[in-house]
Here is the input.
Amino acid sequence: MAYADEQTLISWMRALEIDDKMLYKQAALRQMCFFRDLPSTLFLHKDTHHHAANDFVHIHGFHKSKSVQLPVYHIAIPGLEIWARDNFYNWNVTVEAAEYEINIPNYFHIDSGKDYLFLEGMEAKKRPLYAENRKQFSFCFFHPRGDYELYAVMQLIASQFARYLPLHHEEKPSAQ
Here is the structure.
């Protein structure tokens, strides 16, 4: 679950001051908005108010790339925690499921980036490859496709945990 000393991504972004002279300022802000608005919201009900989504992603730590301080994102739901970071070259992600194995189709080649699992800012969260442990694993996706692959894998993970989450609401049968 989110740790008491972690702040939300949105509060960190509001306090963040990246110098306008930094070439990667816009890329850093784009990355933060992407994670806040797309992959993280897959774990919330589609009707969740935007303010609730703003409070859902927490900052677990930091790392630097291109001289810009970047966050390590943290999502926690019952039975599942995800940490992710992007350094403008690739996404490094660690997934920890308490009880359930996660099924990810082979066409994602989820273990192909094993030589690039540096996990800056979240080194203590490094786990085995997916092929070795389907409950707790780390993986890497490279840009330019990395955002799309991350979103797709997060969608798969969210769909597998949807029935266990209080954050998702069951669809009510229509009155007939």
